[in-house]
Amino acid sequence: MSLPYASPPAARFSAQNRSRALQADIMELILERDLKAGDALPTEAELVAALGIGRNTLREALKVLQALGVVEIRHGYGMFVAPANFDALADGLTFRGRLSLRHEGKEALQLVDVRQALEAGLIGEAMDLWTPEHLAEIEETVRAMETAAASGKTFTEVDEKFHYQLFEPLGNELLSNLMSVFWKVYRQIHHELGGEQVNLMENAAVHRGIVEAVKAGDKELAAERLRRHFDGIRAQLAKLRDAP
């Protein structure tokens, strides 16, 4: 028998709001002091005095900021502004996607939508920056896919390299990090949907088609082929929605 739902007490929400406000205050302090990734934060004693809070309250807030990738706590050395780290984002999105696979896959489909929009939307801009040397590198990557497929071997790592190479000329570090995040999420969702059943030769051919559109300088076709690249996983997710 299910238990009746009870709303969390107002005091709990109040505590959560205070915790978020404190986290925001710490981040604002980092910005105001013009600290960069790797720079040391003020000591606990200095933060307690500056923020007017207790030491335990500060430590709880710092733990949350560490989990969010804002602060890095090195025991015995101090606290530092954390370098860019998207692991927490990848873990969180992967969980949301996997959870949704138990419930019609809506969020998993939304994650696929975002990756699709990111790649199809930027391929034209990336093509403007491609050099013959870069195109040769992409060609070598696709050939590696085709060789692996012909031998019946999966090529997950080569596939990831291919999608990274497509947009490498943009020199956008944030984009590269987001691509890595969405690749990890997509790969996990794909695996749980039975990704091992993918036709390797067809998959390699899809990537070959993208490169051929790029070689032809056809931005619209390249974007369309990137969008179609996601048709397979969309069809699988649609089955979840249609299942009784």
UniProtKB/TrEMBL annotation:
CDD domains recorded: WHTH_GntR
Keywords: DNA-binding, Transcription, Transcription regulation
PROSITE patterns: HTH_GNTR
Transmembrane feature ranges: none
Pfam families: FCD (PF07729), GntR (PF00392)
Name of protein: FadR family transcriptional regulator
Record InterPro entries: GntR_C, TF_FadR/GntR_C, Tscrpt_reg_HTH_GntR, WH-like_DNA-bd_sf, WH_DNA-bd_sf
Domain called HTH gntR-type: residue spans: 16-84
